[in-house]
Amino acid sequence: xxxxxxxxxxxxxxxxxxxxxxxxxxxxxxxxxxxxxxxxxxxxxxxxxxxxxxxxxxxxxxxxxxxxxxxxxxxxxxxxxxxxxxxxxxxxxxxxxxxxxxxxxxxxxxxxxxxxxxxxxxxxxx
Length: 126
Known about the structure:
Blueprint: H1 3-23, E1 31-38, E2 44-51, H2 55-79, E3 87-92, H3 95-121
Parallel strand pairs: 2-3
Antiparallel strand pairs: 1-2
Helix pairs in contact: 1-2
């Protein structure tokens, strides 16, 4: 990826995040824009978001982004001057959830290990 494209990705990500925080403050409290990948021709962009909450919040986020993609695109194009205004496709990012699951597994393993080590340390009473 070129340096220019990396800058465009970060700029679009920042503008989408700012717009959601200012225009849709109450709705966007559970969402995070995690990454943006703008195509080399600047015509399309994939916007990854994560959702904090249950499956209901996830469906609400999907519906919101589907409904407001054009509006968000228009607002981004007002602040980010590019040859083309990229068409935004919103996809869910499961990375944070996977990371949380890995941490849970590590915590469980640590608990099991500490329990087994305390059992080994206890002297046998005979």
